[in-house]
Amino acid sequence: HLATSLPLPSERDHLRPRIDLVVFMIDIKSKYSLKNVEASLPYVDASYFLGKVCFLVTGVGRVNYCSIDTSAICKLGEDYCSPVLFCELELEGIRVATAQRLLRMLQICAGFVPGVSALSFSLLMRKSADD
Fold first, then answer.
1. Looking at per-residue confidence, does 122 or 26 come out higher?
2. pTM of this prediction?
3. What's the CATH number where 97 sits?
4. Residue 82, C-beta contacts closer than 8 angstroms, at least 6 positions apart
5. C-alpha distances in angstroms, 123 versus 24, 50, 93, 120?
6. pLDDT tens-digit readout, 34-72
7. Residue 57 lies inside a defined structural domain of this protein
8. pLDDT digits over 67-107, tens only?
9. Parallel, antiparallel, or unpaired: how do β-strands 53-58 and 22-27 relate?
């Protein structure tokens, strides 16, 4: 399910499925994109930041057109203890790999991978990013 911003409308709460993973998409070519994500963050329950939120940054293949400094996005990931994934959606191979990675994250967050919790997976991702 996709939403352009948070909070989600309350009139369909009773029909909404369980939310296992929240992916904030940031278009690196649009400052509005980052501002929209920052405005939406307060509406996410704090418990989701324990392994059930990630930031997906698109458009990284066009460095000349970037409107957002990548360090600001990395700081956002650090501040919210959430992984940041960088991708270029225009390249099919990278798009497919990113989709597979997000699907695997979703499987873990939904509890479909025995022995791996969303929190432990998030910590593993952060540790490998720090090395």
1. 26
2. 0.87
3. 3.40.50.300
4. 49, 53, 54, 55, 122
5. 19, 9, 27, 5
6. 999 999 999 999 988 888 999 999 988 766 777 888 899
7. yes
8. 888 899 999 999 998 999 999 988 999 999 999 999 999 99
9. parallel
- What pLDDT was estimated at residue 55? 96
Sign of the alpha-carbon torsion through 117, 1, 77, 69: positive
Range of the domain at 103: 18-128
pLDDT at 69: 87
> Ramachandran region of residue 59, left (φ > 0), alpha (ψ -120 to 50) or beta?
left
Q: Is residue 5 part of a domain?
A: no
**Element spanning 62, H or E:** none
* Contact between residue 82 and residue 54 where contact means Cβ atoms under 8 Å apart: yes
Q: How many domains does the chain have?
A: 1
**Amino acid letter for position 78:** E
Asked if residue 2 belongs to a domain, the reply is no
Q: Which of these, 88, 69, 80, 85, lies nearest to 38 by C-alpha position?
A: 80
User: Is 12 inside a domain boundary?
Assistant: no
pLDDT at 128 over 60: no
Tokens in use for 87? 């991708």
